[in-house]
Amino acid sequence: MKHIYLKTLVTLMFINLFTMGNSWSHSVSMKASTFFISPINGAQVSSPFQVKFGIKHFKIAPAGENIHKAGHYHLLIDQTAPLSMDVPIPSDQQHIDFKHGETEALISLPPGQHTLQLVVGDEEHEAFEELISKPIQITVIPSKK
After folding, report:
1. Which of 57, 68, 82, 95 allows an S-S link to 31, with CB 3.0 to 4.6 Å?
2. Is pLDDT at 6 greater than 90 in this prediction?
3. What are the distances in angstroms from CA 47 to CA 21, 108, 111, 137?
4. Taking 70 as the threshold, does the pLDDT of residue 55 lie above it?
């Protein structure tokens, strides 16, 4: 009887360690935030334009690397639908995936108003709910030729 009890206890300890390890690797500080360094909200830009990302109390790493308190950027362009937190963020022209850990990029958009938003995803491209920036509005002006 003691042997079965001990075996069960050890099994439960391993399960607890595994689930604690998983939540620890994806923990996000309440102080963590992501934001645009540039452009700023309301900016007028010519295409292509430089976008620079910022983050506090978190790290940026390439996708696929399970590093404590680290993720990678996704840039959402003209998105109005809310993200699903339990499925990978799409990767397309309106959801640009910076899977190599990039913190800036040269972006081309057609003239007009656009909404940009940053989302930090984990190694499986699922969004960290706490690391979604406030959206910014920019106006891309036609380039003079």
Report:
1. 57
2. no
3. 44, 5, 8, 15
4. yes
